[in-house]
Amino acid sequence: QVQLVESGGNLVQPGGSLRLSCAASGSFLRINAMGWYRQAPGKNRELVARITTGGSAIYADSVKGRFTISRDNAKNTVDLQMNSLKPEDTAVYYCNVEGINWGATTFDSWGQGTQVTVSS
Questions:
Q1: What gap in Å lies between CA 112 and CA 120, rounded to an integer?
Q2: Beta-carbon count within 10 A of 23 CB
Q3: C-alpha distances in Å from residue 69, one per residue of 16, 79, 81
Q4: Four-residue CA torsion sign, 55, 7, 1, 43
Q5: Of the four, 10, 36, 67, 101, which is 20 to 30 A from 81 by CA?
Q6: Is 5 exposed, middle or buried (0-12, 13-18, 19+ CB in 10 A)?
Q7: Could you write out the three-class secondary structure of the chain?
């Protein structure tokens, strides 16, 4: 079973920066992709950024050039550096981790979410 602990959400002014962190723990064979999603009130959950074990990353068009995802494979952590934040970035941000269990089954785990509010 995989546990995810997120941190870093906060209230920030437009143009500001935040860094979200997510740490995975538990018993599993390996982690494959790690990512961040967000859900704003009244909207569906959407992909923000995702990164593979090898470091290949994809971003939502709305955050390209402003957000950077990174991971530490040794520590099983994934971070999201968010710069030039806009009010439309306001949402609950969720960490997501995909991997393989010891029994060779796959897992797809979610964190509890961390609130990011961009407002003056």
A1: 26
A2: 18
A3: 17, 6, 6
A4: negative
A5: 101
A6: middle
A7: CEEEEEECCCEECCCCCEEEEEEEEECCCEEEEEEEEEECCCCCCEEEEEECCCCCEEECCCCCCCEEEEEECCCCEEEEEECCCCHHHCEEEEEEEEEECCCCCEEEEECCCEEEEECC
